[in-house]
Design a protein that fits this description.
By secondary structure, this protein is an all-alpha fold. The protein has a domain at about 30-120. The chain is about 65% helix and about 0% strand. The chain has helices at about 1-10, 25-50, 55-60, 60-80, 80-95, 100-115, 140-155, 155-160. The chain starts with a helix and ends in a 6-residue tail after the last helix.
C-alpha cells in the first residue's frame, strides 16, 4: 500500500506536442521531406508538360528545369543559369492556372526565391525581348500563305485578278 501512496504523491508533468527528436533524427526527417518535395515537383511538372504534345518544344526553358531536376535534384536546380530560371518561371506562370498541385507550387516558389537571391546576369547587353509579345507560328495551307504574302507585299487581290495590259 505504501508503494501506491508514493506513486500517487509523485509530481506529474504534462508534455504537449511530440517528444524532441535528436539532431540526427531531425536531419533524416528533413532529407525525407526534401526528397518527397522533389518527387512531387518532378511528377507534377512531368504531368504538366505531357498534357500537350508540343509543350516540350514550346516551353524549352521549363524542360531544361525538368531535366535539371531529374538529373541533379535540387542541387541541379541551383546550377541552372539565372536567365534560364527567369524564363522558366515566366513559362510556368503562363502555363499554370491552378496552383493546387503541391509540386508545381513548390517549384514556382523555389524558382522565384532562386531568382530573387541571385544577382542578375549582365553578360548579355542587348535588349531583352518580352516573351509574351512573340509571335506563335502555326502551319497553314498554301492558299492561305499566298493570300498573306499578297497582303503583306502590298498587292491587292483585285489587281491579281485583272488581266495584264498589253505594252
Amino acid at each position: 500500500m505504501q508503494s501506491v501512496g508514493r506513486f500517487l504523491q509523485r509530481p506529474v508533468s504534462i508534455r504537449i506536442g511530440a517528444p524532441k527528436a535528436s539532431a540526427a533524427e531531425q536531419r533524416a526527417a528533413q532529407k525525407k521531406r526534401l526528397r518527397a518535395s522533389l518527387r512531387f515537383m518532378q511528377s507534377d511538372l512531368k504531368h504538366l508538360l505531357d498534357q500537350h504534345e508540343s509543350t516540350r518544344t514550346l516551353m524549352r526553358h521549363l524542360c531544361f528545369v525538368e531535366r535539371a531536376l531529374r538529373r541533379g535534384g535540387l542541387v541541379g536546380l541551383e546550377r541552372v543559369p539565372t536567365r534560364v530560371v527567369a524564363k522558366a518561371l515566366a513559362e510556368l506562370e503562363r502555363l499554370v492556372w491552378d496552383w493546387s498541385p503541391v509540386g508545381l507550387a513548390e517549384l514556382r516558389s523555389r524558382l522565384a526565391v532562386t531568382l530573387k537571391n541571385r544577382p542578375a546576369d549582365d553578360t548579355d547587353d542587348h535588349q531583352q525581348l518580352d516573351t509574351s509579345q512573340r509571335a506563335i507560328v502555326t502551319e497553314v495551307e498554301h492558299s492561305m500563305f499566298e493570300q498573306s504574302q499578297r497582303h503583306w507585299s502590298g498587292r491587292d487581290e483585285a489587281a491579281d485578278r485583272m488581266p495584264a495590259q498589253p505594252a
